[in-house]
Structure formats: C-alpha cells, structure tokens
Prior knowledge:
Layout: H1 19-25, H2 27-30, H3 35-48, H4 52-80, H5 84-87, H6 95-100, H7 105-113, H8 145-169, H9 173-198, H10 213-217, E1 218-220, E2 224-225, E3 233-234, H11 237-244, E4 251-253, H12 257-262, H13 271-283
Parallel strand pairs: 1-4
Antiparallel strand pairs: 2-3
Helix pairs in contact: 1-4, 3-4, 3-8, 4-9, 8-9
Amino acid sequence: xxxxxxxxxxxxxxxxxxxxxxxxxxxxxxxxxxxxxxxxxxxxxxxxxxxxxxxxxxxxxxxxxxxxxxxxxxxxxxxxxxxxxxxxxxxxxxxxxxxxxxxxxxxxxxxxxxxxxxxxxxxxxxxxxxxxxxxxxxxxxxxxxxxxxxxxxxxxxxxxxxxxxxxxxxxxxxxxxxxxxxxxxxxxxxxxxxxxxxxxxxxxxxxxxxxxxxxxxxxxxxxxxxxxxxxxxxxxxxxxxxxxxxxxxxxxxxxxxxxxxxxxxxxxxxxxxxxxxxxxxxxxx
Length: 285
C-alpha cells in the first residue's frame, strides 16, 4: 500500500528557471539511470526476494526512489516555470503575441532546445535528455540475488556520476543543493546494497553451478603484438593488475585465446579434458 505524503523528502529549490537545464535533468526522470528505472528495478527484486531482511531493504529503497522521482519532477516544473512551454497555451494578454513576433528570442531558443518539455506544457515527461521514452527494458532484474545486487551497486554508481555531472553543469545554488541531496542518497544506497551482498555467504560466483575450476582461474593474455618480428607476444599488464588486487589466484596463459580456449574445447573433448588442456597451457605442463 502506498500513501502520498504531501511533504517531500527534501525541500526542492530552484533559484532561476532554465529550460535548457531541465532537458538535461530529464535524464534522471525518464532515463536508464534515473529514479523511475531504479524504483522499478528494486520493486521487482524486492517482491521476489525470499529473505525477509533483504526484501525489506529493497522495498525501502524502491519507495525512496519514488520520492526522489517526485523531487526531480518538481525541479523540472520549477526550471520550466515561465518558459514558452508553459505559457504558450495561455492566449490572454500580450505574452503570446510578443513570443510569436520574435521579441523574446532567448526564451524561444531555450524552450525549443528543451525538446520534449515543449510538449509537456511545462511539466515533466517520461523521457531521457534526448527525448527517448522510458522503457521497461531499463529494468535488468534477473531474479538471482547475488547477480541483481551487483547490478544495483553499479546502477547506484552510474546515478551518482550522473548527478555529479549535473551539479557541475549548473550555477543555480538551489538546484545544486537539491542535486547534492539526491547524489548523496545514491552513495548511501550503494553502501546498503554492498552490505546486502555481503550478507549472502559464498555469493561468488552467482548461481548454483560453480563452473570449470581451471577455466575459472585462467587469465588469458590476448593483448600484445602477436606476429610481429620484434617485441612480439602478449603483455601481462592485465594479469599483473588482477593478481595484485585480488585473492582469486589467476593462472597466466600467455597464448592467444584461440590457442588456449577454442582449441581446448572441441566437440570431441569433455569439459574435464578441456579444463586439463587449459591447465597444461597455463602451467606449461
């Protein structure tokens, strides 16, 4: 059950209308990393989550994302206030005549450049900043908690960066304050999802099938100057990075992928034999 509380989660402030910035802010209203996509992602995960504590967290965050959607919507309305997209339907007075006579070129340009906002009559529309309509394809719920939570962490990181870029793009102090609140909540959510993932014992790899142990640990070095007479062969920069920052324990394969993997797995070989061939390539056995 949902109840609408007229008091918003945080006071929305916009000091000056700015239709051009409103167009950019649409990214967080109807875009792939926006608030509606986040709410739908976490609701669909929460409704399917068997663990009571993780379910509660997912539904708490999903509900908060709807409150953030409300904040973004009110920001859009304030950014568009007084623009031709709001007033073009008001035929009383001289405003429309002056607009049509071209006496307000700056506002006309801003309004036209705000794209779908012109069609919204001064209100928000479920599109991204380029006018592409919101789609359920943005919701990447898979139904496997360890995989979904990793996706959630990445989604919050993308949303945080989007808000950060929006903050850097505006000089409006009120708008910066509003965006700062929304950005900070993305940081909090990311940490919550990290905690939820950590609560799942043995959460990597996701799922129930472990995979081939040899292939799981093989690092196949496919970067380098293969075939060149000088300085030929693979580079191990990626392997060095993985080894230095992980406890996984990678085995280095210095042959191109077609030699290590494609030839190892043939229609005549079993997964066990394929794994053995990879191991031999990796260790030089």
